[in-house]
Amino acid sequence: MPTMADVARSAGVSVATVSHVLNGTRPVLPHTRQAVLDAVDALGYTPNTLARSLVTSRTRSIGLAVSAISNPYFTEILQGVEAAALAAGYGLLVADPHDDPAHERKVVQLLHERRVDGVIVAPSARPRDLVAYLGRHAVPAVFLDRALPAGDPSAGDPAHGRSPFDQVCAENTGPMADLVGHLAGLGHRRIGLVAGLPGLSTTEERVAGYRQALAAAGLPFAEGLVVSGHSEPAGAERATAALLSLPAPPTALVTANNAMTIGALRALRERELAVPDDIALCCFDDFAWADLFSPRLTAVAQPGREIGARAVSVLLERLATPGRPTRTVRLPCAFVHRTSCGCPERRDGPAGRPPAGTGGTTEPSAPLERGTAS
């Protein structure tokens, strides 16, 4: 197996110069750098990652903790993280925290003990222990999809209302308001919401969007029309059944994530209710097979891969400039208009291309991407 000394002899440079080229520890003249890279290719030299990490204190690896196995949306995020990390020359270690506060703290510690340079985490509804661990050990971290509410004691800096970590999330409030407002515009006056797991920022923001749309349409907020589906199919099935059992059941239903859409559809099928003839249905989260249902599901599509890729970019910026202020980046969603809301097929919608694997017309939700110091 060729060594760094072999590369140095082939390129006609010192071993130190080869080290600087491979590790990026000192500027090297372009022609010298190219000679080293040519020698690496010709000899088939593979750097010793462990030895390099001892010199640089970096392993060029990132830890990712998301519930990717149980949630197809997080699978898209994982793909975005993996592609961006690979493009930047970083490896990826993945762990599933199962949305359990104790388990998430444990898996993030295991990632940290494997000397990843930083971690990307979708935090649980109660991340106090996670936040404490990351802060105590000064682990570079980016929270994605779910934000820590400013001023929440679990966020670690309630006095200044600032998250201690960078965050990359989708817009939630405005897109949910667009979805509910669309149903209100179609004449629905009792719109049910199958909400997510209590305590998650995504749940709180989407409920806020629901209430915002009702207020804009002049409709009262009824607590009985909002039931938690706990962000999973079985919970959503129970929540939908509860809504349908009300003395005055909703005429339209919104599910707050893709997993809960499955549960809601099961409950509707159990009662032999047809969508949209008996009840309209819209969902927050588009997914690949939403266009295959009959009727086709009207949805808000989140930019999962873009969120994953941006989280890597923000983490790498944090590694390069550790002392800069934290920030929260919000990416826009798209309204994907199909037919489960009760509208006829649209063939002449606004310009825009639906996400891969889906049909319908897309409309970007406002506001567009923004980065804010938080």
Architecture blueprint of SSEs:
Layout: H1 4-11, H2 15-23, H3 30-43, H4 49-56, E1 61-65, H5 72-87, E2 91-95, H6 101-113, E3 118-121, H7 128-136, E4 141-144, E5 166-170, H8 173-185, E6 191-195, H9 201-216, E7 226-228, H10 233-244, E8 252-255, H11 258-270, E9 280-284, E10 298-301, H12 304-320, E11 327-331, E12 334-337, E13 361-364, E14 370-373
Parallel strand pairs: 1-2, 1-3, 3-4, 4-5, 5-11, 6-7, 6-8, 8-9, 9-10
Antiparallel strand pairs: 10-12, 11-14, 12-13
Helix pairs in contact: 1-2, 1-3, 5-12, 6-7, 8-9, 10-11
Structure write-up:
This protein is α/β, with parallel strands linked by helices. The protein is 40% helix and 16% strand. It is built from 12 helices and 14 strands. It has helices spanning 4-11, 15-23, 30-43, 49-56, 72-87, 101-113, 128-136, 173-185, 201-216, 233-244, 258-270, 304-320; strands at residues 61-65, 91-95, 118-121, 141-144, 166-170, 191-195, 226-228, 252-255, 280-284, 298-301, 327-331, 334-337, 361-364, 370-373. The strands form 2 sheets. The chain has a 7-stranded mixed β-sheet, sandwiched between helices. Strands 7-6-8-9-10-12-13 form a 7-stranded mixed β-sheet, with helices on both faces. Helix 7 links the parallel strand 3 (118-121) and strand 4 (141-144). Helix 10 (233-244) crosses helix 11. The longest helix is centred in the C-terminal third of the chain and has 17 residues, at 304-320. Residues 155-160, 348-360 and 364-374 have low confidence and may be disordered.
